[in-house]
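Narrative of activities, Objective 1.

The group set out to show that a structural description can be obtained from nothing but a protein's sequence at a throughput compatible with the screening campaign. Below is one input-output pair from the validation batch, recorded exactly as produced.
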Amino acid sequence: MPENNGQLLHVQGLKMYFPITRGIIIQRKVADVKAVDGISFSIKSGETLGLVGESGCGKSTTGRAILQLYKPTAGSVKFHGDELTEMKGETLRRERRRMQMIFQDPYASLNPRMTVGNIVGEPLDVHKLASGRARDERVQELLRLVGLNPYFVNRYPHEFSGGQRQRIGIARALAVDPEFIVCDEPISALDVSVQAQVVNLLKDLQNELGLTYLFIAHDLSMVRHISDRVAVMYLGKIVELTDYQTLYDDPKHPYTQALLSAVPIPDPVIEKERQRVILEGDVPSPTNPPTGCNFNTRCPRVMDVCRKVDPKWQDVGEAGKEHWVACHLYE
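Output recorded for this entry:
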């Protein structure tokens, strides 16, 4: 994918392999878990890119590899044109001020032994941004920003509901005034009624603070609500990427079509008439992905070439609209 002006983040050929070793005293590598296998995309400043796919396809690993929480096996991650994969130590720590993460589980991502004030204020201490009264005032300001009572600073995480804990996690991410936030399935552990509140909060914060999001999720209908563009991931690779309206109106890849056919439509007439795409079989192991297209073992429109040749990542959009897809049907 070409690198254009106006891009905040540019990812090219990103790979994240986890080695499988055997042996007790002398360990040797016998295979790799190909969690992320050569993906490319970009995110413009101020936009939200939704990343969707089945569990285990590599979505969360992608987010962590971008932030260098995992050191990528190969590929390039450029933030404001600076190569993150080559940074280490103090240089990377300073750069992390501009990139933060909202974690999936609001129960596991907050230290139960720390008060809310210390949890939200910890990034201020790490980056030496505020201390004393200024720090306390900043913490209270952040709690107000996410819709929490600023006098909750002396309470502990177990005293809050799941939605309130996720708001604390959001406040912590905002503490250092980041430009880019990876939202790693921030609503999947919440009740449906609370999910909409958290998504609306993220949209309001984006408009107010000019934030850029990589929004990782399972729920395609919720991704449509918050995202400007959507990338569909399968077994470590992105198979389709375009703006949300085009993806939902005219999906190109058979896997995207199958995913969208499973999204409920609140109209009984349309719901009764439409045809579901049922995928057979299970997702292959990322340790030993299929030859050719990763989706060929389950694809309802598979051809001989799909089993032999990996499809090209190409733009099939019309009238100046980018619509990237990796499928032999459009070559």
